[in-house]
Design brief:
With about 400 residues, this protein is mostly helical. It is about 70% helix and about 5% strand. It has 14 helices and 3 strands. A 3-stranded mixed β-sheet has the order 1-3-2.
Length: about 400
């Protein structure tokens, strides 16, 4: 009789084990399905319809909530959450070991199963939020496709005209900016006002070029630990779970900050690809009524076009259309030197180099697993897009 009861108990245990294993496998399959199925079955047209019509509604609540705070919720959650997570992990390990010692292996396996199940459920929920707030946005048509910037070859003359246009726009905007005692240009307004203007600017440019961006207000936040963040080489982050745009404010580099600000807001408004966010940001900045934004936008185009144009000129034996010996360019050089000096001021040691390499590798991996072949190289906007924009939207209008 005792033998029969023991056999029945073993059968129940094995049956329970099989059920639990099946549940874990099902959760793992659901996680895989939520991640891969949108990439396989959601077309760019469907993704665009979602981004234009559904995404703004999905993102409205998190956008509105985090906009109530002047400080970065993402930063506080990461810092405080990491400490809490470490505490919980240590606590759970101690509990599991204690259960193993006091109650035996069966109790330990039961608790470990519950832990693993909870982790998979949390991962599944986070992945669903990720897809709704960011993942599906990778599938929509690119900014160049929306704007009709599809040519990838242009003549030297077109490059030369586009470079001259960007150069003149950059110098004109730089002339209007205020300077500090070192002769370095700075933002025209406070950070909060710049954030407000950047949000309005992205709405305007989205309507003008039919980007289909979310009209939700995005209150980009400066990060308090920006100085330490600078060691990673990252200047901005979009938190897709909170719908929050975060920017590095340790050194508000007039050459890059306005574009970075608009870049992160572009992510929060529905464009996931890095090249799209960069393109939208630069196109917006050059159309701004703020000289500091125009300066950063034209500078981005100028830098991207200069070396390609110089290579073209060398191959064809032609002179460059601009001269960097122009006295007006000296003001730009002061800004460039100040930017380089800030980079040089960051500590250079094995630890900071490891942090920078690790963050670069993590970001690169994240981008590649989300279908952005080339990883961090996708931040680079092809120069042909700027030349095509000049030919289609500037030269023809003139």
């Amino acid at each position: 009789m005792r033998r029969s009861l023991k056999d029945n108990s073993d059968k129940i245990s094995i049956k329970l084990l099989l059920i639990r294993t099946a549940i874990l496998l099902l959760l793992a399959l659901l996680i895989g399905a939520v991640y891969f199925l949108p990439q396989l079955f959601i077309s760019s047209r469907v993704a665009d319809l979602y981004c234009r019509n559904v995404f703004p509604l999905v993102a409205f609540l998190p956008n509105s909530f985090n906009s109530l705070f002047l400080f970065s919720l993402t930063e506080n959650i990461v810092v405080c959450g990491s400490l809490i997570l470490i505490f919980l992990i240590i606590r759970k390990i101690v509990i599991l070991i204690n259960r193993l010692i006091k109650r035996g292996f069966v109790s330990f396996v039961s608790d470990f199963y519950k832990l693993l199940k909870n982790i998979l459920i949390i991962a599944l929920c986070m992945l669903i939020v990720f897809q709704m707030m960011h993942g599906i946005n990778y599938r929509r048509p690119s900014i160049p496709q929306v704007m009709g910037l599809t040519r990838d070859t242009h003549s030297y003359e077109e490059y030369a005209m586009a470079l001259s246009w960007a150069y003149e726009g950059m110098l004109e905007a730089r002339y209007q900016l205020g300077e500090d005692y070192n002769g370095v240009a700075h933002l025209s307004t406070s950070l909060e006002e710049a954030v407000y203007d950047a949000n309005a600017l992205m709405n305007t440019i989205s309507h003008e070029y039919d980007y289909g961006m979310s009209g939700n207000y995005i209150r980009a936040k400066g990060v308090s630990l920006s100085h330490y963040w600078s060691y990673t080489g990252i200047t901005g982050v979009y938190d897709m779970f909170l719908g929050e745009a975060n920017v590095n404010t340790d050194y508000i580099d007039i050459l890059y900050f306005p574009v970075t600000l608009c870049h992160e807001i572009s992510h929060a408004k529905g464009y996931a690809r890095e090249s799209d966010a960069n393109t939208a940001a630069v196109m917006a900045c050059i159309r701004s009524n703020r000289a500091d934004f125009r300066y950063a936008g034209y500078y981005a185009i100028f830098v991207d076009l200069y070396y390609k144009t110089a290579s073209y000129a060398s191959e064809e034996g032609k002179a460059m259309p601009i001269s960097l010996s122009d006295p007006a360019f000296e003001a730009v050089m002061r800004d460039i030197d100040a930017s380089a000096a800030y980079d040089d001021s960051l500590a250079d040691n094995p630890f900071t180099r490891f942090v920078e390499r690790f963050s670069e590798s993590a970001n690169n991996t994240f981008l590649e697993v989300n279908g952005q072949e080339g990883g961090t190289q996708t931040y680079i906007v092809p120069t042909s897009i700027y030349v095509d924009f000049f030919c289609n939207y500037v030269y023809l209008e003139e």
